[in-house]
Design goal:
Length: about 240
Protein backbone atom coordinates (compact mmCIF):
# COMPACT_ATOMS: atom_id res chain seq x y z
CA UNK A 1 0.00 0.00 0.00
CA UNK A 2 1.38 3.47 -0.84
CA UNK A 3 1.78 6.15 1.84
CA UNK A 4 -1.50 7.83 0.94
CA UNK A 5 -3.69 5.12 -0.50
CA UNK A 6 -7.07 3.77 0.51
CA UNK A 7 -7.22 0.00 0.86
CA UNK A 8 -10.65 -0.89 -0.42
CA UNK A 9 -12.47 -3.81 1.15
CA UNK A 10 -12.80 -6.97 -0.88
CA UNK A 11 -16.23 -8.27 -1.75
CA UNK A 12 -17.05 -11.48 0.03
CA UNK A 13 -14.46 -10.98 2.75
CA UNK A 14 -14.88 -13.09 5.86
CA UNK A 15 -17.10 -11.68 8.59
CA UNK A 16 -15.09 -10.26 11.52
CA UNK A 17 -14.92 -12.36 14.67
CA UNK A 18 -17.58 -11.36 17.17
CA UNK A 19 -19.40 -9.25 14.61
CA UNK A 20 -17.34 -6.14 15.49
CA UNK A 21 -15.95 -3.98 12.72
CA UNK A 22 -14.03 -0.72 12.65
CA UNK A 23 -12.41 1.15 9.77
CA UNK A 24 -8.99 2.54 10.66
CA UNK A 25 -6.38 4.81 9.09
CA UNK A 26 -2.73 4.49 10.19
CA UNK A 27 -0.71 7.70 10.37
CA UNK A 28 3.00 7.29 11.10
CA UNK A 29 6.09 8.49 9.28
CA UNK A 30 7.85 5.11 9.54
CA UNK A 31 6.76 2.67 6.85
CA UNK A 32 8.13 -0.34 8.75
CA UNK A 33 6.10 0.57 11.81
CA UNK A 34 2.91 0.95 9.76
CA UNK A 35 3.58 -2.41 8.15
CA UNK A 36 4.03 -3.98 11.58
CA UNK A 37 0.78 -2.51 12.92
CA UNK A 38 -1.06 -3.62 9.78
CA UNK A 39 0.25 -7.17 10.24
CA UNK A 40 -0.58 -7.16 13.96
CA UNK A 41 -4.13 -5.78 13.94
CA UNK A 42 -5.25 -5.61 10.32
CA UNK A 43 -6.45 -9.21 9.94
CA UNK A 44 -10.09 -8.15 9.61
CA UNK A 45 -11.63 -11.61 9.88
CA UNK A 46 -9.85 -12.16 13.19
CA UNK A 47 -9.72 -8.70 14.79
CA UNK A 48 -12.57 -6.82 13.15
CA UNK A 49 -10.14 -4.02 12.24
CA UNK A 50 -10.08 -2.94 8.59
CA UNK A 51 -7.16 -0.71 7.68
CA UNK A 52 -8.53 1.53 4.92
CA UNK A 53 -5.59 3.88 4.49
CA UNK A 54 -2.10 4.94 5.54
CA UNK A 55 -0.22 8.22 5.63
CA UNK A 56 3.33 9.32 6.45
CA UNK A 57 2.97 13.09 6.98
CA UNK A 58 0.40 15.75 7.80
CA UNK A 59 -0.74 16.49 4.24
CA UNK A 60 -1.14 12.81 3.38
CA UNK A 61 -2.98 12.19 6.63
CA UNK A 62 -5.54 14.94 6.04
CA UNK A 63 -6.06 13.75 2.46
CA UNK A 64 -6.54 10.08 3.37
CA UNK A 65 -8.74 10.77 6.40
CA UNK A 66 -11.09 13.10 4.54
CA UNK A 67 -11.26 10.67 1.59
CA UNK A 68 -11.93 7.49 3.58
CA UNK A 69 -13.77 8.85 6.65
CA UNK A 70 -12.66 6.04 9.01
CA UNK A 71 -14.14 5.54 12.45
CA UNK A 72 -10.72 5.69 14.13
CA UNK A 73 -7.33 7.15 13.20
CA UNK A 74 -4.18 5.79 14.85
CA UNK A 75 -2.10 8.96 14.94
CA UNK A 76 1.59 9.41 15.65
CA UNK A 77 2.42 12.58 17.58
CA UNK A 78 5.55 13.55 15.64
CA UNK A 79 5.05 13.84 11.89
CA UNK A 80 6.61 15.85 9.07
CA UNK A 81 4.53 18.91 8.31
CA UNK A 82 3.40 19.93 11.79
CA UNK A 83 2.78 16.81 13.87
CA UNK A 84 -0.34 15.08 15.11
CA UNK A 85 -1.81 18.27 16.55
CA UNK A 86 -1.81 19.83 13.08
CA UNK A 87 -3.63 16.78 11.66
CA UNK A 88 -6.27 17.15 14.39
CA UNK A 89 -6.67 20.86 13.73
CA UNK A 90 -7.03 20.54 9.97
CA UNK A 91 -9.37 17.54 10.11
CA UNK A 92 -11.58 19.28 12.66
CA UNK A 93 -11.95 22.24 10.32
CA UNK A 94 -12.62 20.11 7.24
CA UNK A 95 -15.06 17.69 8.86
CA UNK A 96 -16.94 19.96 11.26
CA UNK A 97 -20.27 19.12 9.61
CA UNK A 98 -19.69 15.36 9.22
CA UNK A 99 -22.61 13.17 10.31
CA UNK A 100 -20.32 10.48 11.75
CA UNK A 101 -17.34 11.50 13.91
CA UNK A 102 -13.80 10.45 13.12
CA UNK A 103 -12.09 9.68 16.43
CA UNK A 104 -8.34 9.85 16.98
CA UNK A 105 -6.17 7.62 19.14
CA UNK A 106 -2.57 8.78 19.54
CA UNK A 107 -0.03 5.96 19.19
CA UNK A 108 3.47 7.22 19.91
CA UNK A 109 6.89 6.25 21.20
CA UNK A 110 6.80 9.39 23.35
CA UNK A 111 5.42 9.27 26.89
CA UNK A 112 6.16 12.93 27.61
CA UNK A 113 3.47 14.87 29.45
CA UNK A 114 3.52 17.78 26.99
CA UNK A 115 2.97 15.44 24.04
CA UNK A 116 0.07 13.66 25.75
CA UNK A 117 -1.61 16.88 26.86
CA UNK A 118 -1.04 18.56 23.49
CA UNK A 119 -2.88 15.97 21.40
CA UNK A 120 -5.68 15.56 23.95
CA UNK A 121 -6.26 19.30 23.92
CA UNK A 122 -6.17 19.03 20.13
CA UNK A 123 -9.10 16.59 20.18
CA UNK A 124 -7.70 13.05 20.42
CA UNK A 125 -9.78 10.56 22.43
CA UNK A 126 -6.81 8.73 23.89
CA UNK A 127 -3.08 8.15 23.94
CA UNK A 128 -1.17 4.87 24.09
CA UNK A 129 2.51 4.16 23.63
CA UNK A 130 4.10 1.87 21.07
CA UNK A 131 4.92 -0.68 23.74
CA UNK A 132 1.23 -1.71 23.72
CA UNK A 133 0.40 -5.26 22.64
CA UNK A 134 -1.58 -5.97 19.50
CA UNK A 135 -4.51 -7.34 21.51
CA UNK A 136 -4.64 -4.27 23.74
CA UNK A 137 -4.36 -1.97 20.73
CA UNK A 138 -7.33 -3.63 19.06
CA UNK A 139 -9.32 -3.26 22.28
CA UNK A 140 -8.30 0.42 22.53
CA UNK A 141 -9.40 1.07 18.94
CA UNK A 142 -12.86 -0.35 19.59
CA UNK A 143 -13.19 1.56 22.85
CA UNK A 144 -12.33 4.81 21.09
CA UNK A 145 -14.81 3.96 18.33
CA UNK A 146 -17.48 3.65 21.02
CA UNK A 147 -16.59 7.05 22.46
CA UNK A 148 -14.45 6.02 25.43
CA UNK A 149 -11.26 7.84 26.41
CA UNK A 150 -8.30 5.44 26.44
CA UNK A 151 -4.87 5.97 27.99
CA UNK A 152 -1.91 3.91 29.03
CA UNK A 153 -2.10 3.91 32.87
CA UNK A 154 0.84 6.25 33.51
CA UNK A 155 -0.32 8.72 30.88
CA UNK A 156 -3.80 9.10 32.33
CA UNK A 157 -2.26 10.88 35.32
CA UNK A 158 -0.77 13.56 33.07
CA UNK A 159 -4.17 14.36 31.64
CA UNK A 160 -5.93 14.41 35.00
CA UNK A 161 -3.28 16.69 36.47
CA UNK A 162 -3.34 19.02 33.48
CA UNK A 163 -7.08 19.46 33.34
CA UNK A 164 -7.47 19.65 37.11
CA UNK A 165 -5.19 22.69 37.17
CA UNK A 166 -6.35 26.12 36.09
CA UNK A 167 -2.78 27.26 35.56
CA UNK A 168 -1.09 26.79 32.21
CA UNK A 169 2.24 24.96 32.42
CA UNK A 170 5.23 27.31 32.47
CA UNK A 171 7.08 27.85 29.23
CA UNK A 172 10.57 26.37 29.22
CA UNK A 173 12.52 28.44 26.69
CA UNK A 174 15.45 26.00 26.68
CA UNK A 175 13.19 23.03 25.95
CA UNK A 176 11.36 25.00 23.27
CA UNK A 177 14.59 25.28 21.31
CA UNK A 178 14.51 21.54 20.68
CA UNK A 179 12.54 19.81 17.96
CA UNK A 180 10.13 17.04 18.93
CA UNK A 181 12.57 14.38 17.72
CA UNK A 182 15.42 15.97 19.68
CA UNK A 183 13.24 15.85 22.81
CA UNK A 184 12.61 12.14 22.28
CA UNK A 185 16.34 11.46 21.93
CA UNK A 186 17.06 13.65 24.96
CA UNK A 187 14.71 11.65 27.18
CA UNK A 188 16.07 8.31 26.07
CA UNK A 189 19.68 9.44 26.55
CA UNK A 190 18.76 10.70 30.02
CA UNK A 191 17.24 7.31 30.84
CA UNK A 192 20.53 5.60 30.04
CA UNK A 193 19.75 4.14 26.61
CA UNK A 194 22.68 3.44 24.29
CA UNK A 195 22.70 4.99 20.82
CA UNK A 196 21.90 1.64 19.20
CA UNK A 197 18.91 1.13 21.52
CA UNK A 198 17.60 4.62 20.74
CA UNK A 199 18.00 4.04 17.01
CA UNK A 200 16.02 0.80 17.24
CA UNK A 201 13.24 2.32 19.35
CA UNK A 202 12.83 5.40 17.15
CA UNK A 203 13.33 3.58 13.84
CA UNK A 204 16.26 5.81 12.87
CA UNK A 205 19.97 5.20 12.24
CA UNK A 206 22.69 5.42 14.87
CA UNK A 207 24.24 8.24 12.85
CA UNK A 208 20.97 10.17 13.05
CA UNK A 209 20.87 9.63 16.82
CA UNK A 210 24.39 11.01 17.08
CA UNK A 211 23.37 14.07 15.04
CA UNK A 212 20.37 14.71 17.30
CA UNK A 213 22.50 14.38 20.45
CA UNK A 214 25.05 16.85 19.05
CA UNK A 215 22.26 19.30 18.23
CA UNK A 216 20.75 18.97 21.72
CA UNK A 217 24.10 19.54 23.43
CA UNK A 218 24.78 22.57 21.24
CA UNK A 219 21.35 24.15 21.76
CA UNK A 220 21.40 23.60 25.53
CA UNK A 221 25.09 24.57 25.81
CA UNK A 222 25.97 21.29 27.51
CA UNK A 223 29.22 19.34 27.14
CA UNK A 224 28.29 15.66 27.48
CA UNK A 225 25.50 13.17 28.12
CA UNK A 226 26.08 13.27 31.88
CA UNK A 227 25.31 17.00 31.96
CA UNK A 228 22.36 16.33 29.67
CA UNK A 229 21.01 13.70 32.08
CA UNK A 230 21.26 16.11 35.01
CA UNK A 231 19.54 18.82 32.96
CA UNK A 232 16.66 16.52 32.01
CA UNK A 233 16.29 15.14 35.55
CA UNK A 234 16.09 18.64 37.02
CA UNK A 235 13.17 19.36 34.69
CA UNK A 236 11.47 16.02 35.44
CA UNK A 237 11.69 14.95 31.80
CA UNK A 238 13.04 11.48 32.58
Amino acid sequence: MSDATEANGTAGAAEPAGGRHVRVVLVDDHRMFRTGVQAEIGQTAETGVEVVGEAADVDQAVSVITATRPEVVLLDVHLPGGGGVEVLRRCAALMADAERPVRFLALSVSDAAEDVIGVIRGGARGYVTKTITGTDLVDSVFRVQEGDAVFSPRLAGFVLDAFASTDAPPVDEDLDRLTQREREVLRLIARGYAYKEIAKQLFISVKTVESHVSAVLRKLQLSNRHELTRWATARRLV
